[in-house]
Amino acid sequence: MRIIINNSSMVPIYEQIMEQVKAMIAGKELKENDILPSVRSLAKELKISALTVKKAYDLLEEEGFTVTVHGKGTYVAAMNTERMLEEYKKEVESEFEETIQKGKRYGLGKDEIRELFEIIIEEW
Amino acid sequence: MRIIINNSSMVPIYEQIMEQVKAMIAGKELKENDILPSVRSLAKELKISALTVKKAYDLLEEEGFTVTVHGKGTYVAAMNTERMLEEYKKEVESEFEETIQKGKRYGLGKDEIRELFEIIIEEW
Amino acid sequence: MRIIINNSSMVPIYEQIMEQVKAMIAGKELKENDILPSVRSLAKELKISALTVKKAYDLLEEEGFTVTVHGKGTYVAAMNTERMLEEYKKEVESEFEETIQKGKRYGLGKDEIRELFEIIIEEW
Amino acid sequence: MRIIINNSSMVPIYEQIMEQVKAMIAGKELKENDILPSVRSLAKELKISALTVKKAYDLLEEEGFTVTVHGKGTYVAAMNTERMLEEYKKEVESEFEETIQKGKRYGLGKDEIRELFEIIIEEW
DNA sequence: GTGGTCTAGACCACT
DNA sequence: GTGGTCTAGACCACC
Known about the structure:
Chain A contains five helices and two strands, in the order H-H-H-E-E-H-H. Chain A has helices at residues 13-26, 39-46, 50-62, 81-105, 110-121; strands spanning 66-69, 73-76.
């Protein structure tokens, strides 16, 4: 697994791990029942604390993306693709909501905000 | 000044104050050379520490929104409206950028993301 | 008297007044026994508090530059020109001392510092 | 780290800390990626509040001298030595500028001021 | 353990 | 009165 940690980012390391694992699952790079690297090995590879990796795995399990089998390891959960997609979309939508609210408070109009959005997405 | 503090929010209080002051400036509720409430009086009103208010005011000054005169008070800076608007837009754009990147990592396509955005902005 | 106050300077207003009065005395713009504007009138002219002007006048008197006659006003003191010049020089010297010390701590050499000084003074 | 605090100085403690840390970086006593003492430990050592140390560290980070990693500590930034030197020089220059201006206002001539400077720097 | 934030007081300098 | 600084604690998130 190729996970890239940005130490100076404001995003906590455990969230960076979570997000990248989710992205791999979304991108079919990780499939159902695939095993994730062990907490210790990933920690060693990324040169971070094992506790940090564990926290990421715990939260992924809590959100239903993985299943941990005691003594064996952490596996990608058999998940309803539809439901997963819905989760991803909700996350993106709620971030858009926040940004749009902020723009509103700053006195920007609907079309101005849409224009800003289009500028960014067209850089794709 | 009507500022509303959400104590249980994860957003630090001083950022909540900053954002609301910025919004008031953007919304012409606060105009150039208007004086802000004193550090102490606002602290009392919001039932928070004076240091927390001071931190908000310090950062607002750093960002050029206000000017503080020792022994007199904190005033809304005479700011180039154009420049201010540009700052606001940059902030909104960079948030859109982040959300779009996240959507990408989740395997969403350009048009899917645009669709999510449109759903939200049409709720305006 | 033409005194210019910079409200946004970090230098306290009373020191700005003191320094400019001293400069006028040094520049013969103000001579022995000349009367300074009254505390109230100068305060009004500069749109500052009378207490601030009074503080400046008090300190000038303390340093021997002026004499205040109760009920009449504040006059430029009959001062030994030699002694006055010495005071001015000491003040300038001690500021140079501080700056040079700082340069030293920053690892700058004697000649580097002298070079910086020459750059500035040649802009005269 | 040997930092010396002068409690009775008019210079705020956090500025004293900042300046001494900068001097250590300039003097190679602190090198890139070296870790600074933790906020708490330095506060304890200097017998001052942790907040005061934190303020110093925050400002050092803002000026680009250090990088703070949440939960890990504060490190000396990988800084362009050239750029750093330029910053130091600018600071010294602007202080010279101020002192020279003051001398001017006091009626001192260019050569008189240069002479005062030479007296001080020759004491090196 | 680390830094990030906040509190409820205090004293000082400036107006 | 104002802001500028500092204290001695506290709780939280992160590693």
